[in-house]
């Protein structure tokens, strides 16, 4: 039998506090999903069920929110998750080529985890930094006005 999924007590306390902050429980879903992602790495159906119980929200609602937002990983990602925005402003200045260049440099396909588990490259929707396109988010940080030279330097620093 597989081990039952559990949230650490600090995460449970954090989610409880978030639930108390808002008028509706559903408003705490985004911070709760971020917390669960921090703990488990990605959001599985088991994580959805766990949050549903923890927050007393129907699992279908938790799942809807998790599925809607691309920032919640649905499968494992590498230590450095490189999310390249390919929405319109970024696409117009070569975002897809940027993502392809990064994949080629790292020897990975989009959304796959590199053999050494260090990298995953994904294409995502607008990250709200359209004025500095093309851009990418790596874990919690933004990298803007990307060109090949900047990418080379950046990838080198992550090795
Ligand atoms: S379109 Fe890329 S950050 Fe908005």
List descriptors:
alpha+beta, Arc Repressor Mutant, subunit A, Glutaredoxin, 2 domains, 4-stranded mixed sheet, binds FE2/S2 (inorganic) cluster
| CATH fold-level name of the largest domain | Glutaredoxin
CATH class of the largest domain: Alpha Beta
CATH superfamily of the largest domain: Glutaredoxin
Give a short account of the largest sheet: 4 strands, mixed
- Which whole number gives the mean pLDDT? 96
Low-confidence stretches: none
User: Which structural class do you get from the secondary structure elements?
Assistant: alpha+beta
How many structural domains are formed by the residues? 2
Question: Which ions, cofactors or small ligands are bound in this entry?
Answer: FE2/S2 (inorganic) cluster
Q: What string, H for helix and E for strand, traces the elements in order? A: HHHHEHHEEEH
Terminus-to-terminus distance: 38 Å
Percent range for helical residues? Answer: 40-55%
Strand content: 5-15%
Q: What is the count of β-strands?
A: 4
